[in-house]
Every structure is written in C-alpha cells, then in structure tokens.
Amino acid sequence: MKALNETPLSILDLAPVAAGQTAAEAFARTLDLAQHAESWGYNRFWLAEHHNMQGIASAATSILIGMVAGGTKTIRVGSGGVMLPNHAPLIIAEQFGTLESLYPGRIDLGLGRAPGTDPATARALRRGLTSTGQDFPRLLHELRSYFDDTPSEDGVKAYPGNGLNVPIWLLGSSDFSAQLAAALGLPFAFASHFAPEELYRSIKVYRQDFRPSKHLKKPYVMIGVPVVAADTDDEARFQATTPLQRVLKRVRGQSMELQPPIEPAEMETLWTFHERAAVYERFAIAIVGGAQTVQKKLNDLLESTQADEFMIVSDLYDAADRLKSFEITMQAISRPCCGSILPR
Question: What is the enclosing helix (H) or strand (E) of 228?
Fold first, then answer.
C-alpha cells in the first residue's frame, strides 16, 4: 500500500461565496487558493458544476477552469465534474479540446451523470435535450468518440478536441459509475465528501470489475475528503461549524452562502435531532483537527480505503483560514508529526 506521504493530494473547489460576498470576490479567492495549492505541491485543482445554488459560483465550470489554468503554471486543472446530461457531448469536447490546446498536459475532464441541481433547474438546463441521466453511457461514448482520431460515420468532429489526449474520469456517489468506470478502464473518483455511505462498496465494485484499457492498466481511485485543519483541534472544531451550517442549509433548501463560524455548542441551538443526524451522515469521513489529528485520520482513511489519491474539500468562511487549512493538511502528510504514522 502507498504510504501517506506518497499519496497525492488534490483540491475540489466550488467557488464558494461567503455571506456578503460577490461572485467576483469568490472567483478571486478560488484563483488565489489554486496558486497557493500549486506552490504547496497539490496535484490537481478541480471545479464542480452546480446550478441555482446561492453560495456556489462554479456553474460555468469550463470558464473557471480556464481562469485557474491561466493563472497557474504546473498544477492539473479540471472538472469534478461536468454533469454530462446537461450538455451536448460535442460542446464539452470542444470546450475541453480548447482548454487542452491552451494548457497542454494539464487538463482533466471529470464527468458526472446527475444534474447538479433541482428538478426545475434541470429542466431549464436541458431544454432541447432529452437526457435523464440514464443514457449517460451513450453520452459518454459519444463524447469519447469526439476525442478519438478516427473518422466518424456522420462526419462530425470536435475542433479543437479531435485527437487530443484529455484524461476522462468518471465521478459517482453510488456504484453505477463505479461499474461503468471499471468496464471502460477509466479512473474513478468517489464523492465521499458528501455521500460517504456508499464509499467502500463502490470502490470495491470498481476494483473487482476493473478491465485494463489503453488509458489505464490498473484501477485508480480518488476519494473526496472534507478536511478542516487548524493550529489546534479546538480551533479546527470552531472553524468546522461553517461547513456544518452550510450542509444544514442544504438540508433545509436554503442559501448555501458560507456563514461565520460559531462556538460548537451553539450548533445544538440551530438544528433539530433529525437535522443533526442528516448533517453528520454527510460528514461521516470528515477530518477535523490540528496537524497530528489530520495526519492520523488521513492515514487511517488510507489504510481502510487504499485510495490512490485524496481530493480535499475545505470550505471555510475566512480566506486566510481556508488557505491555512489546506496548507496544514499538506504539511501534515509531508512531515513526521505522529510517532510511527509515517514510514521512515
């Protein structure tokens, strides 16, 4: 098994908007985080497509990928993901063919089959499209054909895109995409940062059913991990009340703008018993603490999942606290701080 200090760390960002902040300010924070992440040694910086969610500004995902790639030099940038049923596959091939042409060797195309929104918004997005998500395999086949350097039956090609090597990942929160990724020999990213209950079963299915392909010789699993890292465990628990409040608002169907942290005891005054259970169900694998705690829990998660890569999510209210969380997380896996946790 790969040691913790040999396991790549990546970042998933949704251009989160703090209360009282504009989308433009959120985009500036996203770019600043990506630039810091590059200097700290993070492997990828992915952005996710969501719609009609106040507090999440990453709806135009391809445009933000271009902004981040243009403002960095070496870190891989991509989608985590593009919700393919919302789009004509040709458009996505052209967009990511353009990105790969501008930033060769640095672009990832992660694909999901959910709408990334509510039913009414999904209908507005898919006007003129008949996709329901169940035809995701067909849409994926069509998209991949646009990147292949082979003549198509109908003469339609993606320019740019045709013949370009844009790595495709399948994303999922159940075993549907796990099975499809295994059958096609593609890397698989599991959304355990918000749907951890299916994590172990899905990655087991993926590894058991994996078929080598020209793209990938053996299974490759990346898992999403919510992390709140701070100077101390107590400070981290305080900062973690921001994402807890955010998920609570999601459960209630309210605005998901980031709220200032509050004392952990105050959370008990905000939610009902059932809301608390729903929130913590989504945070089942969340890691909250100082450097030693983060390192130990990441190591435990690595041992239990044997993940090939971790994708870290850390949505905090204050930009400086958010940067510190990602910096401490990288430092925690890069240096010994917990006795024998890291191999010598």
Answer: strand 221-229
